[in-house]
Amino acid sequence: EAEVAQSPRYKITEKSQAVAFWCDPISGHATLYWYRQILGQGPELLVQFQDESVVDDSQLPKDRFSAERLKGVDSTLKIQPAELGDSAMYLCASSRAGNEQFFGPGTRLTVL
Amino acid sequence: AQSVAQPEDQVNVAEGNPLTVKCTYSVSGNPYLFWYVQYPNRGLQFLLKYITGDNLVKGSYGFEAEFNKSQTSFHLKKPSALVSDSALYFCAVRAPGAGSYQLTFGKGTKLSVIP
Known about the structure:
Radius of gyration of chain B: 14 Å
Shape of chain A: globular
Radius of gyration of chain A: 13 Å
Order of helices and strands of chain B: EEEEEEEEEEEE
Structural class of chain B: mainly beta
Helix content of chain B: under 10%
Largest sheet of chain A: 7 strands, mixed
Number of helices of chain B: 0
Helix content of chain A: under 10%
Number of strands of chain A: 11
Shape of chain B: globular
Largest interface: A-B, 26 and 24 residues
Oligomer: heterodimer
Strand content of chain A: over 45%
Number of strands of chain B: 12
Structural class of chain A: mainly beta
Number of helices of chain A: 0
Distance between the termini of chain A: 37 Å
Strand content of chain B: over 45%
């Protein structure tokens, strides 16, 4: 069964450093999402791509976060500089248009 | 703006008993509703969805959910709970239409099935 791949699974960094997360969606899924999940809460959308284009980044903190999906397949989410409040699980998901979203295992980020 | 409420932080049920995890929603238009399950340090797994049609939706692992438009609810149910069902359950809603497919999630309900 096809799955969404994410790396790394865990990342520990110091405040003010740069971090990057990678996601490879299920083959054929044109829509890709990045969510942030703070402990004890549900995921919140950061950015949605349709192919290589950003459809919704209204909740992405653009002063420090950036996301790209250059060839419309895999995607990278970057944080620079990281802050203590960025500690969370970062989840990538993909879907065929507006159908159900399939999530990867996530990247657990700890900022010290 | 759309929102989801899961009124119970935790639900405890004995193995073999029926379980219900509650969800209510608010959205403009006809909702798209979803249930996901999350195991520790894992991503979310899709269980079932309601888009249109029969109000009773059947999903994976014996779970089902009932859509009630008048009560704006979408409660998750299972006739006989298993210990392996113990996990964190999230209800999510999406507004219909094209464009952003953003899912708005509830805060989650921790289900504990007691042997």
